[in-house]
Amino acid sequence: MELHDPHLNGGKFTWFRGVNHQSAARLDRFLYSMEWEEAFKIISQKILPIVISDHIPIMLECGNSEQKSSYFKFENWCLNVEGINDMVQGWWNGFVVEGCPDYKFSIKLKMLKQKLKEWSKTTFGEFTNKRNNLLEELAEIDRTQDDRDLTEDEMMVRATILVELEVLAKNEEASWGQKSRVLWLKQEDNNTKIFQ
Asked: Which InterPro entries match (predicted)?
């Protein structure tokens, strides 16, 4: 069918079995046509760190994408951040506005929105950096495991990283669930109905 299989960056295999990866194979891959190659000039596939499955996730990158700036919307993941209630209450009480009650309330909401917008941007950036650092550490441990068996300490570090990634993934899932505007999805649900 004249499909192209681009070079896999970051490793040789996409599937492992066993505690110390006794079996390995390249089962997963992206294939694309000539038309796709003409539409997207920069095409590469790379390995991402293993988190849960015995299949290594791979990512296909094509072309350049520009991110649009979006308006502020309070997201549910913010409620999971420790100390958020005290911080919001401190901001609210710190705002000094003169005028009638409904005017004061309106201005305070605008001021709170601005504070939350700034806080959300830096906090989500910290989460993103933390996730990227954890994924980098996990990838390093996986590369080590390709060469030799992991020590008990290394296996404990790997397990700790996976737990931290799971917490970050739940916050990210809550954020994407809210952005999707699919109202019947529930948090803490595996959302298997959406695939059936």
From this structure: Endo/exonu/phosph_ase_sf
Structure tokens that stand for 153 in this block: 């300490």
∠ CA 168-44-29, nearest 5°, is: 80
pLDDT at 13: 79
Grouped pLDDT means (10 residues each) for the chain, 196 residues: 81 76 80 79 79 80 59 68 84 87 86 84 73 84 79 85 82 68 55 53
CA–CA distances in Å: residue 169 to residues 18, 129, 156, 160: 25, 13, 20, 14
Same domain, 36 and 84: no
Burial class, 10, CB count within 10 angstroms (exposed 0-12 / middle 13-18 / buried 19+): middle
> Structural domain tally of the chain?
2
| pLDDT reported for residue 65 | 47
Q: Can you give the residue range of the structural domain that contains 55?
A: 8-62
| Same-domain pairing of 18 and 95 | no
Residue 132, pLDDT score = 81
Instruction: Reduce the DSSP state of residue 133 to 3 states and report it.
Output: helix
Report the C-alpha gap between 175 and 64 in whole angstroms.
Answer: 24
